[in-house]
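Teaching assistant's notes for section 4

Start the section by putting this record on the projector. Ask students to predict, before seeing the second block, whether Deoxyguanosine kinase will look compact or extended. Collect guesses on the board.
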Amino acid sequence: MKTPFITIEGPIGVGKTSLAKAIAKRYQFHCLQEIVEENPFLGKFYNNIDEWSFQTEMFFLCNRFKQLEDIHNNFLSHGKPVVADYNIFKNLIFANKTLNGNKHNKYLKIYNILTEDMPEPSFVIYLHASLDTLLKRISKRARTIENNIDPQYLNDISNDYEIFIDRWEKEHPLIPVIKIDGDSLDFVKNDEDLMLIFQQLQEHLTKGEKKQ
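Reveal the predicted structure now:
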């Protein structure tokens, strides 16, 4: 099996970074965290999506491309496992939601060029939760730039994730997706819930080892 590369995905506030850190600690994997608050356009984006969507999405794309290039060169290619709190395919989910017409076409061209030789994950952990749960967790972490998130926008993104993940599974049958219900499992507060996720994770890691 190739060096384990786990990506965690799901809508805003679902707990991707918390789970990535927990996995990294347990398995001694390198933890790759996406750049969020450093995006200079994000606060403006939440205030005016139409005006600032292209700048916001391009910043995320370029930074994620650089991060993935670095972990490939410095970790994966040297046999060092990585867990990331995002998969770069999330760029398509958000771009499809926020960009239109010529800007969307330009974005897709750049996305396809940058991601054509990016490392693929061994498997994806997909976290999903209800809108109420997402709003509570976003409020709890109290990021200033998220103060103006429209609940309808968040709900739409959650629905878009569901549609995208279903399609992605069909298009990538060799990359398993572990689906975790964030409403029924609170792996941040409950160690037993976290252990259940570790058990599923271990099963996939063991399967990968047997394929060697």
